[in-house]
Amino acid sequence: MFPILLDLRGKLVCVIGGGAVGSRKARAAVDAGAGVRVVDPRPDLSLPNQVIHILELYRTEHLEGAALVFACATSEVNAQVVVDAHLRGVWVNAATSPDAGDFTLPAVVRRGALTLAVSTEGASPALARRIREKLEAEYDEVFAEWVRILADVRAEVLATVADESRRRALLDSFADWSWLARLRAEGADVVRNAMRAGW
């Protein structure tokens, strides 16, 4: 497996089957900025408002325009979705048969722009979940603030520090754990100003 983060903003994600698994995939795709089409004949699904819900049984045409597909229906339907997606050259994930698709999804922890992903490549989803839970406890919301500060300071360093080796040294020093401890103790404004004073 090759780990990758996809930018789905402005892309269409098609989810076939809107049950518990499909609705989770639809929410994740919406959160990633994708347009989402869910194909499921049941009218009473729990889907985000942004989702286009097609109240029909699956047909190949439902994949039209999709950049990514999640097959979350029955095994039989999912197998057909995989075939149809491959014929269209579209990446597909099959909930009932992960090996048949093109990708699997890791267990994920998000803290702002920080994304931590854990995968056992399907060997033990339970272990991946437990590692994710451990990471959730260790990497709290303060990391999101630290990443925001680092992004701001990085832009300023790149714009104002001409020497490349000095830029690299500064940016590396700002990623030191001591800054996280200082952020927890003194707050974002103090940390941002102290970083700026370093060059």
TrEMBL record:
Listed EC numbers: 1.3.1.76
Pfam family name, one: NAD_binding_7
Annotated metabolic or biological route of this protein: Porphyrin-containing compound metabolism; siroheme biosynthesis; sirohydrochlorin from precorrin-2: step 1/1
EC class of the enzyme, as a word: oxidoreductase
Family matches, as InterPro entries: Met8-like, NAD(P)-bd_dom_sf, SirC_C, Sirohaem_synthase_central, Sirohaem_synthase_N
Keywords, sorted A to Z: NAD, Oxidoreductase, Porphyrin biosynthesis
Start and end residues of each Siroheme synthase central domain: 111-137
Reaction equation(s) it catalyzes: precorrin-2 + NAD(+) = sirohydrochlorin + NADH + 2 H(+)
Domain of life: Bacteria
Protein's name in the database: precorrin-2 dehydrogenase
Species whose genome carries this gene: Gemmata palustris
